[in-house]
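REQUEST FORM: STRUCTURE PREDICTION
Request ID: SP-0412
Submitted by: Lab K.M.
Chain count: 1
Length (residues): 328
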Amino acid sequence: MTKQNLSNAKSCVNPTMFMVEKPPPSPPPPRGSYINNISRKTLVKINGDPRIMTSWVDSMRASSPTHHMSTNLYEDKTSWMMRGTVRKLARYFPTAIVSGRCRDKVYNFVQLAELYYAGSHGMDIKGPSKGSKNSKKGTQAVLFQPASKFLPMIIEVYKELLDKTKSIEGVRVENNKFCVSVHFRCVDEKKWGELSQQVSLVLKEYPKLKLCQGRKVLEIRPIIKWDKGKALQFLLQSLGYAKCNDVFPIYIGDDRTDEDAFKVLRERRQGLGILVSKTPKDTHASYSLQEPSEVMKFLLLLVEWKRLSLRKQSKIQKQLEDIASLKY
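STATUS: Completed
RESULT:
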């Protein structure tokens, strides 16, 4: 079964999670069909073997299509319109942004204090200082950094990668606090082999770090059992929703690293994942959208649904109060 579209409009957003109060009656559809043969996440140990290096470059090429532009929130022209939509959403639902970027960078871009932010693929989580108005009573302000002991090592690797890759035109090395990202979107494909070799030379000196692959980016992260799925579970727990059956988490993402969060929701059998992609992909998500405009339309529909629901509840409450007053 292929993944299902939520609307007929156009589709994405930086990975976002929020909670809706009442789940829909029907369960999510089966997992999407296997159309793309590339694995959701590629973890490769590189030791200089030419065969492994060639395989890694092939994987870089296969997972980095050039036939369409990225749908990353930071690069999309509608990002500020999306920001306004997310602000409206956060008025009614606990809302979090889960990103591979440094949490401070994400916050400085979005600048919405009422959100929860999970940077560095969920390894740096912080919530509103006084908690969200939508969270359970008694919950504390959130601050969680499971990989804090790796900070000095990450800084060392970042500096070494800057030095090792400076001769490769177009490469951009980014320090995302708990991980280092090596962007090769602007690197000539003929230089990918050289780039992967330089990255491997640095990484082999750090056995406690691993190399992960995203869309036109190589990422060096600590070897800990933590990912966006774990971050989602932590946020649900922190908000007091881990054991609630009257909430419906929704997670929207466009990267292979978001599959961990999609998988968590599928295994919980409560909530759903929405993949943002113009092309069919193998995914744990239940539904799909294509572009930021579709995501924005979907979120605005949720906001309107909530507004109407509250208005109806208020009307019913007033009617009940009027009836009660007549009895006396």
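NOTES: The helical segments are 50-62, 79-92, 103-110, 151-165, 192-203, 228-238, 259-268, 292-327.
Reviewed by: T.R.
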